[in-house]
Amino acid sequence: MESQKIQSALADITAEQDPTIKSLKLASLCSALWAERGVELVVVGGSAIEILTEGAYASGDLDMCHATHASLPVRERQEIMGMLGGKGGPRNWQVAGMYLDLLGPVESFARTPFRSVQGPYGTVKVMKAEDLLVERVLVSVYPGENATARKCARELAVVALSGALQMNWNEVLRVANLPEYRNVNECKALVNEVSNELKIESPYHSD
Amino acid sequence: MNLKSKVPTIPIEGSISYEDWLKGRRYRRELSKLVAPGVIRRKTSSSDRRLKKQFNGERGLPFTPTEKL
User: Best residue in B29, B35, B48, B67 to probe A by mutation, most A CBs within 10 Å?
Assistant: First the structure.
């Protein structure tokens, strides 16, 4: 990406005052710059949930992981973030009026693809909705009740049940049944609870 | 209740365009707030110090109101 285009993108992101658009734009720019060097980044955690649900959950930091086997060497990461006027590093930077955290390799169990948004500066890969739902349901229960995680799971469920976000409901159960989660019943219960409240069909009602 | 999506879907396969993603924001927010009203941003985290310094004592920029999405 040419330097002029990078600077123009950076000015746009810095001026952006909508937190979700700002995150998406920064993810788009960073993804493009990393992709030029052969590394695929993925938005994870609260930022991913926000992009998929608009749930008013995420804070002012953008969490990303790398989906390719290797990440970039520290030196290269620092050089890229230097081009963006970033401060700090080598795994988190203050950039364009927010924070970017690069957390390491992505942890995903679903066999579905990452969700994908054609961002203004490049494609943004977003964590799989199936992984996000099962994980939030788990965190809502263990190690103790977590009301915020539960709200996030409910948001993912309703947006998916409406069809605004495609979810592979069989894959949700497969992931939930893995030793890493073992929370099939909790996932089914939460999805059925949301569908009952809104009187909409649940993929798990016939179970 | 009929919640069949009125906006472009975020697909499993392929991509959603930026324009379509923007178009769907309000509907996704409205859906989310049916089951989790209000701002549900965590009150605290290990990043509080840096976030509150950056965002004038808050943990992030304020969310755009639903009617303005």
Answer: B35
Q: How far apart are CA A182 and CA A138, in angstroms?
A: 9
ipTM: 0.95
Tell me the C-alpha distance between A206 and A40, whole Å. 39
Buried (b) or exposed (e) across A107-135, using 16+ Cβ within 10 A? ebbbebebbbbbbbbbbbbbbbbbbbbbb
Please give the biggest Cα pair distance in chain A.
Answer: 56
* Amino acid at position A153, single letter: A
Among B3, B9, B30, B45, the strongest candidate for a mutation testing the A interface, having the largest count of A CBs within 10 A, is B3
B65 interfacial to chain A (CB closer than 8 Å): no
- Which backbone phi and psi does A74 adopt, to 5 degrees? -50, -45
Query: What is the C-alpha to C-alpha distance for residues A78 and A88, in angstroms, rounded to an integer?
Result: 9
Q: Tell me, what amino acid is at B58?
A: E
**Assessment of whether the complete model's pTM goes beyond 0.90:** yes
The beta-carbon neighbor of A162 closest among B31, B33, B63 is: B31
pLDDT > 70 fraction of chain B, expressed in percent and rounded: 93
